[in-house]
Amino acid sequence: MGLFSSILKLSRRRSPWVYVLNAGSCNGCDIEIGSLLSPRYDMEQIGALRQGSPKHADILLITGPLTLRSADAVRSIYAQIPEPKAVVAVGSCPATGNVFAGSPTVEDGVLHVVPVDVFVPGCPPRPQAILAGVQEAAHLLAEGKTGRWHKEKHHE
Ligand code: SF4
């Protein structure tokens, strides 16, 4: 592996930039993500920074069951993140729809719309678990192993 590749790999693992997207959550998961910015959980301890634009991000954190109305926005924001990129589904909602599963207004999971690399279960998950999810995603980015789960959903 060349020097440039080694530096790139180290950068992806040690300083991932994160964009947070609410796809119809109750805000419970978003409040836990907010804790990552506090001194107690401090996302910057692993080098991660929250970004205001998807164009500057490496990792997309998604919360919520993915409402039908938000699906196009999620696709668009995912497309704006430069490659390579990773997606962390925060909470049980983006994994399965959770308490909203079966509703005609939700997709029952983010992986029907974008590939998901890490699922962080819980309703809501603890901040430590979300931080571990970000670390896992950064590791997958560095190893070039992203885009693990994707399942197209066909609407009738
Ligand atoms: S997983 Fe629970 S806390 Fe998180 S958005 Fe869904 S219902 Fe709210």
TrEMBL record:
<dbReference type="GO" id="GO:0046872">
    <property type="term" value="F:metal ion binding"/>
</dbReference>
<dbReference type="GO" id="GO:0051539">
    <property type="term" value="F:4 iron, 4 sulfur cluster binding"/>
</dbReference>
<feature type="domain" description="NADH:ubiquinone oxidoreductase-like 20kDa subunit">
    <location>
        <begin position="26"/>
        <end position="135"/>
    </location>
</feature>
<dbReference type="InterPro" id="IPR006137">
    <property type="entry name" value="NADH_UbQ_OxRdtase-like_20kDa"/>
</dbReference>
<comment type="similarity">
    <text>Belongs to the complex I 20 kDa subunit family.</text>
</comment>
<dbReference type="InterPro" id="IPR052375">
    <property type="entry name" value="Complex_I_20kDa-like"/>
</dbReference>
<protein>
    <submittedName>
        <fullName>NADH-quinone oxidoreductase subunit B</fullName>
    </submittedName>
</protein>
<keyword id="KW-0408">Iron</keyword>
<keyword id="KW-0479">Metal-binding</keyword>
<keyword id="KW-0411">Iron-sulfur</keyword>
<keyword id="KW-0004">4Fe-4S</keyword>
<dbReference type="Pfam" id="PF01058">
    <property type="entry name" value="Oxidored_q6"/>
</dbReference>
